[in-house]
DNA sequence: ATCGCTGCTGCCATAAACTGTCAGCAGTTG
DNA sequence: CAACTGCTGACAGTTTATGGCAGCAGCGAT
């Protein structure tokens, strides 16, 4: 393997691109399996080659977008990961999102060289069977409401069978083993609440956007959690 | 200037792309200012990194088209599906495959139009927590054996704690709730068998390929199942 | 079949590059 | 202020890259 260094530089670039937030040199050094001093040298090399990597003391490194690394192709493992993920989505998500996953994979396949295209079809990784409760609500519509940051009016029955009607600000959707759970700010309770999609009796999408950004809501919600959702 | 080699490899790639006809190694060596011997080594390095360069004796080198990922367009739903799938892989698969999923997503993000790139970060779909048993075997090595259609020698303990040693032909890997299951043709039993990866005590990859195609094995295995694996 | 061109590999000595450790300076955050 | 982080220099040990040489094998034309 006489590619040690070049390969490592590409890995480093890829790692930097994977993180969006600033990453400390120490972390990068560990991930690439190299000493901190060498990491600094690697960064300098990449910068010398034109990569727009910004480093700030006390912060870390960030890669400015738009830098193309030449061997821009998926590895076999990456394709396997994409296929496996898509197969899980096909099984666990509602039909419409499942279809979107298949479409996305097809688009990726379309730009792949012939021999790599085969790898998508012949990927040997499969997802175990998964029973999924029927959604009574239209999950696609919920996803749309989240994207558009629009208020949802819910007609909801909780586990005790109590039926309530509330306006909520939807900001995330959790895919669990058997159910999907909508996470939202509840205007009624003035707090975060979650709602199983199979218990949503009826639903209406309002015309108006709710007054906050969904990413901010998500961030605040995370801070209330003991175990944070990763990524 | 510790970038001599990496930079030269990029130049080489660019030069190969510029020519469309086959180019001889001698020409490439001159253009990159290096000896012929080194040029051969450089080509080997690029090929090792995944570049699809074809060399024919008496002809020269050609870079197969389609090596670089072109810009791709995805719908919002397709991106959501890709992100959700990748997040599931990050949680359910072994670290290496999980990382590959994240890398793939980052590569997709890199060729996305700017305004779409944000949607990857702000996707509001999440995967519920998932406890996963530790693998005792190296699942990455198993995936590799499947890809290469190579014989695996297993040291395996079944649920009764009986330990056996067998040669198998691995052809698929199932990702279930808590475990991963290797599906293979067992030479000992002359039949299909499945093996939980957390029960594999030890494992060795043989040099030789097994005498059949893994896709055929998969097809035959499916016919023995009551509930077929979809897709 | 023979010849020239070309890809490809192994070997080896030398030169160049890389690497880790240690030490120190400077900027940011809390 | 303290803790963290980026950044640079120097040095010694190690690794790697390189070029030259020799030889084998596939391709095309003579």
Automatic annotation (TrEMBL), chains A, B:
Record-linked Pfam families: HTH_11, WYL
Limits of the Helix-turn-helix type domain: 8-61
Domain of life (superkingdom): Bacteria
WYL domain location: 140-203
Gene3D superfamilies: Winged helix-like DNA-binding domain superfamily/Winged helix DNA-binding domain (1.10.10.10)
Protein name (record): YafY family transcriptional regulator
Organism of origin: Rhizobium sophoriradicis
Taxonomic lineage: Bacteria, Pseudomonadati, Pseudomonadota, Alphaproteobacteria, Hyphomicrobiales
